[in-house]
Amino acid sequence: MHESHDYEKKSYRKAFGKTADHSDLAKTCVCLANARGGTLLIGIEDDHELPPPDQRIDQEDANRLLQALAGRCLNVGLADPQIITSPNGGEHLQLRIHPSISTIATTADGRVYMRLGEQCRPVVGEDLLRLASEKSGFQWELQAPQRVTVDQLNPAEIKFFLQKVREAPSDKVSPFEKSKSDNELLAHYNLVREDGQVTNLGILWLGTPAQRARLRYGLIVQYMVYDEAERRIRKEIWLDHQLNPLHLLEDILTRGVELHYYHEVPNGIYRRQVRRYPEAVLRELLANAFAHRLYTTGTDVAIRVYPDRLEVESPGHLPLGVTPTTILHERVRRNQALMETFQATGLMEGEGSGYDLIYEKLSRDAKPLPEIDDTYNNLRVIIQAKAPNPTAVALLDTLARYYEFRQKEIITLGIIAQRGTITAPVLAQALQLRQEERLRTWLGRLLEWDIVLARGVKKGTEYMVNPKAYAAANLDVKPSLKTLEPHRLRALIAEDLKAYPNSLMSEIHRRLEELSLEDIRKEVYRMVADGTVGSTDGKTYRRYFVLP
Fold first, then answer.
1. Picking from 150-159, 273-282, 387-396, which range would have the lowest pLDDT averaged per residue?
2. 174, CA 20 to 30 Å: which among 232, 276, 282, 528?
3. How far apart are CA 171 and CA 174, in angstroms?
4. How many domains does the chain have?
5. pTM of the full predicted structure?
6. DSSP per residue, 154-220
7. CB 186, CB 195: distance < 8 Å
8. From CA 115, how far away is CA 35, in angstroms rounded?
9. Residue 132 within any structural domain of the chain
10. Under DSSP, is residue 448 helix (H, G, I), strand (E, B) or coil?
């Protein structure tokens, strides 16, 4: 198993013997505690799955290690220490770290760290204030300030919630959970506490309008429509607290008629309707706005519809550890109990932030990816309403009928189809990847199936849709120089030099203006190296010609 945001491996030498570094281990424990807790395996190297076969962990040494860690970190719960024997006979120490739900974990010298992705980073300045506010935010769901009991709730809302949970597919709600009694299910999803008091989360889902209105910071949504001059022409506001989160989302989608507008794009002799904002994208955006917002501030969720874009704004920054450039990959939950109810009732996917689904649906319709603005005190997500490229839509429609794409593949293909040709660094940036080498997993089988072509090496690699894919889709697309296969580009340069021998590199580029100077230079240099093209002496004014 690879390291992740809740799973860490440390070498035996880090914990025991003369090379032990207990302060560094304490820092790791603080990191995990300030995130979502996790598992620490001591005795396994980072690049290994198992400990050395002859490695043994002494129980007394393990006890002394736990004592040392307890003295080097504060507000960290260390639990369930076990010496595990691996299949190869080697031993390692497994240690559970509880999440610090309402307090901030620190090292003994007062330093704060947090697990961000696969790295442990210090938390300072503004991020420290955000962490402190989120710790208090974690508790909003589970508090019960109104002292309401189950018999005071809305019976219809209780029936609806229990029905949705019991009807949920098994990958959302397990058969074991469904076998629980009604009261056990309500307690399982933290709607009711052990003492019988209904939590804020329970009021949000099961309460009467009056009870919801008394929530200190409830769920209020504003829906605003603007014209071309950005003057507001319509406003809807859900202020009466009549609806639970699922009914609220559905009512917004019903009353927000502007959300249902669509473009018509050619599809052979017919025309296909492509929604400006796919329904699955809208549902995921609103569910995320409800689930990840801060419930310790009175700011409303705002939906703004402009002629050219949709903006969904919710109070609070992205959860600490997630940024606009990592949102596709990071998995950090702010309101854990709330999200579990959203998943059980089908309101949202439940895993991660749902942005992988948003990326998939937008890429599938050849639409621009979302823009994330995490400045100030609110999170704003922008979806463009522009019409998609008809050729890209037709290509993706055709290919989807013959290939069963994985989610990563359709996202990658959608980006490439819209761009025509794209370099490895730009594609990696669009996919929020830190290294171009990881592109291979996102390209998947697109190269193997010859749907996408690659030319160049390393950072100079370019990806483009295979012209044969356009032909197979019966699309009359004339390949430009940017989509020419390498051997055709080579032949084009050779023909140009035959017609205009002794040309400067700049002169070749001027005649082949659709292609970048860098592409021409790379191919000409290759042709010189393999003896196809010759050159004059000198560097500044070197001229090129085809060799006989």
1. 387-396
2. 282
3. 7
4. 5
5. 0.71
6. -HHHHHHHHHHHHHS-TTTS-HHHHTS-HHHHHHHTTSB-TTSBBPHHHHHHH--HHHHHTSTT---
7. no
8. 6
9. no
10. coil
